Amino acid sequence: MPIQRLQRPRDHRIHVPRTPQDPPTLDDLARALEVKTKVLSSYQSTYHRKCTQDDVGRAMVYEHRLLNAMTIEENNGSRKLVLTVILYSFSQEALAPAWFAPVQVQLNAIQQQLAGIEEELLAVEEGLDNVAQSAGKCCAEATNALNDTGELVPWIIVPFSDGRNPTEEPFSLPALTSTSAIERLDVDTCNEYLEGYGVDILPGDGDLKERHRLLQDAIGCRVSRL
Asked: At 87, is the pLDDT very low, low, confident or very high (cuts 50, 70, 90)?
């Protein structure tokens, strides 16, 4: 839900920032912090049109609303809610008046609850990523099982156990698209592949042919050519 623009305080010298974006940005938060500092300073001054208690309360609540609605952009362009507490310290920042302490306590409690929700959401997201990773690996293995030797219809690259692509950095291993591709592998390359797929085999155990068979099985190929 969009956050409304902060109401203009009594002190006409204080410029009210524009309506924050939806979701708010770090620039919006920075402007909110600046306005809050000026409002507090005005409230504690002797200026004839200094800010009121209501002005201080509105400025602080406005800042907390922005904090609790911050979002970030992920690499794939999708957005996720980030309920975060930003620790900041300004050497010249005015302290909140004593009468605002009960409200501050309530706001802090809300932030702690939101932080707990964030941890739960991150745990769920991690679990979903693991499920998607396992499903992708199983799908590739199942497809390879149907593609015979891979000579007519190439096999699909099966990701390593940790989800990384063996043909990309930092591995840069040759793509296993057919039985012929496996047969061209030497012992060291086979060992690197088998380790990535979580297949237990010590260097020197078995001959090259056996490694080829183990690797063929690891990516889902079921032909008996090797």
From this structure: very low
